[in-house]
């Protein structure tokens, strides 16, 4: 399937309680990562893969997200009058990135429930689910590989990453079998946030999924799991363990990924991205070394 026909679903209804009080009035997804809100990186990733139709599943107090991807004529006029073409270009880039649609999740019942809300929008076509806490470096594209595996295997595809076994309890974990494709595995079982002792591998699910509409029927009867929420991992487990259903494959991602899900990882993400930038890195990298030496 052409990427242009695949839609992206981005669940952004979370309350962002780890970042309070910063997220009391500002959506977590709008917190800046250097000079762009985190969610813009995710939309840019979708667009780079050829996907321009983006559905955001939102909760209350998420109007700032809609405003960011809308045009702001008064700001654009001021920048144009000043002749500040660089800033004007950056402002217009965010509003012209993609066709962004918004849908309320309603009662927050977990990631699986948020995905189920996208049913009428995505229709009968495969779609990608992209979580805003995971930023994938533009130099290490992941979605094109996932789309390619989907086309070759006619399967659902999830992104996996090797993690320290001591941290596997923070993720959904995959039990896998090798395939004839490098860094592509067949998923035969999934466990949501297992203990280190119970984990079938150190392959953690990260926030990229390519799903088919078959997921919706399973989500309809998926019962609340970990945390009392409807888990997408539990629905995918049904496909992975049932030979009569659509297969699930995993792409093992070995590129650069930035986690913005908690305060420490968020700070690390900003430092890593800024240090790699041509406009900031030359001055920032020596300062980081000096600062580290002074600790």
TrEMBL record:
UniProt keyword terms in alphabetical order: Nucleotidyltransferase, Transferase
Uppermost EC category: transferase
A Pfam family assignment: NTP_transferase
EC annotation from Swiss-Prot or TrEMBL: 2.7.7.9
Single GO MF descriptor: UTP:glucose-1-phosphate uridylyltransferase activity
GO biological process assignments: UDP-alpha-D-glucose metabolic process
Matches recorded under Gene3D superfamilies: Spore Coat Polysaccharide Biosynthesis Protein SpsA, Chain A
Reactions listed under catalytic activity: alpha-D-glucose 1-phosphate + UTP + H(+) = UDP-alpha-D-glucose + diphosphate
Family indicated by similarity: Belongs to the UDPGP type 2 family.
Name under which the protein is recorded: UTP--glucose-1-phosphate uridylyltransferase
Species, as recorded: Microbacterium sediminis
């Amino acid at each position: 399937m052409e990427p242009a026909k695949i839609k992206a679903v981005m669940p952004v209804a979370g309350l962002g309680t780890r970042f309070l009080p910063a997220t009391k009035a500002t959506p977590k997804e709008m917190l800046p990562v250097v000079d762009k809100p985190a969610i813009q990186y995710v939309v840019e990733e979708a667009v780079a893969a050829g996907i321009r139709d983006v559905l955001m599943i939102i909760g209350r107090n998420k109007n700032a997200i809609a405003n960011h991807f809308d045009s702001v004529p008064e700001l654009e006029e001021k920048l144009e009058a000043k002749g500040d073409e660089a800033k004007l270009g950056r402002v217009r880039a965010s509003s012209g990135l993609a066709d962004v649609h918004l849908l309320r999740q309603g009662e927050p019942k977990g990631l699986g429930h948020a995905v189920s809300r996208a049913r009428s929008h995505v229709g009968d076509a495969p779609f990608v689910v992209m979580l805003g806490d995971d930023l994938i470096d533009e130099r290490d594209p992941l979605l094109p590989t996932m789309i390619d595996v989907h086309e070759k295997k006619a399967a659902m595809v999830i992104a996996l990453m090797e993690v320290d076994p001591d941290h596997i309890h923070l993720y959904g974990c995959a039990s896998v079998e090798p395939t004839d494709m490098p860094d592509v595995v067949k998923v035969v079982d999934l466990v949501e946030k297992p203990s280190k002792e119970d984990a079938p591998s150190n392959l953690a699910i990260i926030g990229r999924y390519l799903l088919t509409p078959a997921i919706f029927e399973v989500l309809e009867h998926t019962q609340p799991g970990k945390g009392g929420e409807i888990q997408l991992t539990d629905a995918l487990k049904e496909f992975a363990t049932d030979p009569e259903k659509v297969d699930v494959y995993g792409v093992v991602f070995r590129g650069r990924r930035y986690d913005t899900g908690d305060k420490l990882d968020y700070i690390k993400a900003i430092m890593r991205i800024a240090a790699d930038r041509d406009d900031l890195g030359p001055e920032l990298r020596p300062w980081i070394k000096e600062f580290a030496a002074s600790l």
